[in-house]
Amino acid sequence: MTITQIEYAIAVDQFRHFGKASKSCHVTQPTLSMQLSKLEDELGVILFDRSKSPILPTQEGLAFLKQARIAVKEFNKLRNVVESESTELSGKFTIAVIPTLAPYVIPLFAKDFSVKYPKVELVIEERKTEEIIKLLDEDSIDVGILVTPLSKDEIIEKVLFYEPFYLFCDPKSPLFKKNKVSPESIQNENLWILDEGHCFRDQVLKICKYKGKRKGDIQFQSGNLETLKNMVKSWGGETLLPKLAIDQLDSKDRKWVRPFSSPVPTREVSLVHNRIYLKEKYIDALQEVILSKLPEDISSLKMKSLKIIPIQ
After folding, report:
1. Measured CA angle at 286 (ends 285, 291), to 5 deg
2. Domains of the chain (ranges plus CATH)?
3. Within 10 A of 226 (CB to CB), how many other CB atoms are there?
């Protein structure tokens, strides 16, 4: 039994698909399948029911995988101890970013980080909040970039910045005529929101005290802020967008934006990682790069004029 075989088994359990698992492990599917079969032969049990779609672990497989994750976590600590003593960052560094931050935050740091630390293999994934928490617990990723506070004792949060919300509304909306809007003035039946599972959706529901559905013939929820913006442009109504998304708008679309009155509804964006962690240098380097690339009007925001919206 090798640590590589164990990692292959964990990858198959994560993706429930041999092709996707082999791709994540950077090996061919036949190689992964062969090594997994060797592992099962040595153990004398079948770890996965290959007749199912998606592939599912057997009862014996579930017990093995639970202990396997602990073994890989301890093994990786050995590698991290050596890397932490090195003066130059190198090796694999995996970051997961929530979808409502990914299009705006990743371009801020990805290129600059790679140029500054060329020996680091930077892996970036787009995941929802609950997935990131699970992956951190499994040591499948090194750090997450998401909205906080999470209020979880096992996770450390390093605040990066505070990002205000804005209202994006079409000219026919009564709110279009206002210089600033209050959350109470938003009509639920005119509001386009993200689908379930997004923390941004939960925050919007709290801001607007959402209780009902849209009026009219269409009930639509998206997982993409850009889609919601385009629905407002096509169908009318309103949606909420974060500051970094507003910065991406052209001059024509900016005319559809209205700020909130003080205290401004805001989300807190942080780097999060496990308390037992040895890649502190990597996280400090990532934090430094992101902070250096933030727009000044975000990096200079002060808490007193903001209202942090919880995600739970």
Report:
1. 100
2. 3-84 (1.10.10.10), 88-161+268-308 (3.40.190.10), 162-265 (3.40.190.10)
3. 12
Contact 166, 240 (CB under 8 A): yes
CB 168 within 8 A of CB 238: yes
Strand partners, 159: 270
CA atoms in the 13 A half-sphere facing the CB of 20: 10
Which of 218, 222, 214, 217 is CA-nearest to residue 238? 214
Residues 6+ apart with CB under 8 A from 179: 258
Q: Which residue reads 């990723």 in tokens?
A: 141
Both tokens assigned to 165: 């919300």
- The angle formed by the CA atoms of residues 191, 195 and 197, to the nearest 5 degrees, is 135
CA distances from 306 to 17, 160, 210, 291 (A): 45, 15, 21, 19
Q: What backbone phi and psi angles, to 5 degrees, belong to 250?
A: -80, 175
Q: Which helix (H) or strand (E) holds 161?
A: strand 155-169
Helix 102-116 vs helix 280-293: crossing angle, to nearest 10: 120
Walking along the chain (312 residues) 10 residues at a time, the average pLDDT comes out as 91 90 91 93 92 88 88 73 66 92 94 94 93 87 93 89 94 92 84 83 81 54 83 90 94 94 91 79 93 88 70 60
Q: Which residues contact 133 (CB under 8 A, 6 or more apart)?
A: 144, 150, 152, 155
What span, in angstroms and rounded, lies between the C-alpha atoms of 312 and 294? 26
Instruction: Work out the angle between the directed axes of helices 3-15 and 29-43 (0-180°, nearest 10).
Output: 110
Whole-number Cα distances in Å, 82 to 77, 85, 89: 9, 5, 11
- Output the pTM of the full model: 0.75
Burial of 194 (0-12, 13-18, 19+ CB in 10 A): buried
